[in-house]
Specification:
The chain has about 375 residues and is an alpha/beta fold. It is built from ten helices and 17 strands.
Length: about 375
């Protein structure tokens, strides 16, 4: 990470550079005007990870700056949420004099929410015993006078959860408040306010939809739950068990009645739709009863595999969120033969980096 590049005064300049780069990358396609969704210039990341350096009696967070090729002490961290920045010095002041909690501590992870919860994970190169747990409980009690906080201890083959290993986020989206359980070490959208913009963009695109929605790579149901009111039914797939469990929690929390989550990979689900194989996880689910005119995909950096790519071409509308422009371009070279890009967006999830999150709506030609 290049810490020197993080200058809020330069935010608009770096966003314009991304706009120009993305437009250039997609120049071969007939795209509509690029919609830009900016981030906050600071305090935009809801999670952050820091290594811990021990130096005599001192103890401090550090990150490795690739530009300087050295570790940099972090008393505060501009991208991290205000809540994380508030917690950082308070936690470190507690850890420094505590020989049990600081011994063999090598990393601290924070997961925060816009709605005021924070989860701290303390990572160790030692087994965690009852003495550690007693000290951690006392630490949580002291921190709880200022923060809505939970603590997790991690060591090799060990995970000690003092209360819960998740936070519950509340997001104001399109006039509603959506609730999301976000579990430690599971994927969640890192930039809370840009996540809201992404959800509202997807809601706007799918208003007045007909039929059902199929979503692949649904995670904790982030998009599925927001989009469910726009469709008769939603069928969504996700492979990671913690994300599926969170999605089920979120379905209940948001009182969504038309959303079904299946724990399957996109590749296996594609085979099931093509009736190449039958799967026990699909017992009792009549895939033929769904009338999915729209498919939503938010794949990993590798993009869509060839079979899934061929499958999505059978849908009238394809809503594609991408974290990797190069694999999106590769996929679009195929999809562009059958579908036309009618919406095109840049979501600045990661300011001051080369990372670009983008979204396209494709409609059958």
């Amino acid at each position: 990470m290049n810490l020197e590049a993080m200058d809020p005064n330069q935010y608009e300049q770096q966003l314009n550079a991304k706009r120009e780069k993305l437009a250039q990358l997609f120049a071969e396609f007939d795209t509509p005007s690029l919609e830009i969704f900016a981030s906050e210039p600071e305090h935009y990341r809801m999670r952050a990870e820091f290594r811990v350096w021990h130096q005599d009696e001192d103890l401090y967070y550090y990150m490795f700056d690739k530009a300087l090729n050295q570790k940099v002490r972090c008393e505060q961290f501009l991208p991290a949420s205000q809540l994380i920045n508030q917690m950082m010095p308070v936690l470190m002041d507690e850890l420094r004099p505590n020989s049990v909690l600081r011994h063999k501590l090598f990393q601290v992870d924070f997961l925060s929410t816009l709605s005021g919860e924070i989860l701290i994970s303390l990572l160790y190169h030692k087994p965690l015993d009852s003495q550690w747990q007693d000290e951690a409980i006392a630490l949580k009690q002291r921190l709880s006078t200022q923060f809505n906080v939970n603590i997790i201890g991690r060591a090799r083959k060990q995970k000690i959860v003092l209360d819960k290993d998740y936070v519950v986020e509340s997001l104001p989206v399109d006039g509603k408040t959506l609730t999301y359980q976000q579990v430690e070490n599971s994927f969640t959208q890192p930039n809370g306010k840009v996540c809201i913009k992404m959800l509202e963009w997807a809601i706007d695109i799918t208003k007045q939809s007909r039929g059902d929605l199929l979503e692949l790579y649904c995670g904790n149901g982030n998009f599925s739950i927001a989009l469910a009111p726009n469709f008769e039914r939603v069928l969504a797939t996700e492979l990671a068990k913690p994300s599926v469990d969170s999605a089920q929690y979120n379905i209940q929390a948001n009182q969504i009645e038309n959303l079904q989550i299946i724990r399957m990979s996109a590749e296996d689900f594609t085979d099931a739709l093509a009736k190449k194989r039958s799967y026990r996880r699909l017992e009792g689910i009549d895939l033929d009863s769904y009338n999915c005119n729209t498919i939503f995909v938010d794949p990993p950096r590798a993009g869509l595999d060839d079979n899934t790519l061929a499958m999505v071409q059978g849908y009238q509308r394809i809503l594609y969120i991408s974290c990797n422009p190069s694999t999106l371009i590769d996929n679009l070279k195929v999809l562009d033969k059958t579908h036309k890009i009618t919406r095109f967006a840049l979501f600045d999830q990661f300011p001051y980096t080369d990372h670009m999150e983008s979204g396209v709506l494709l409609e059958l030609r």
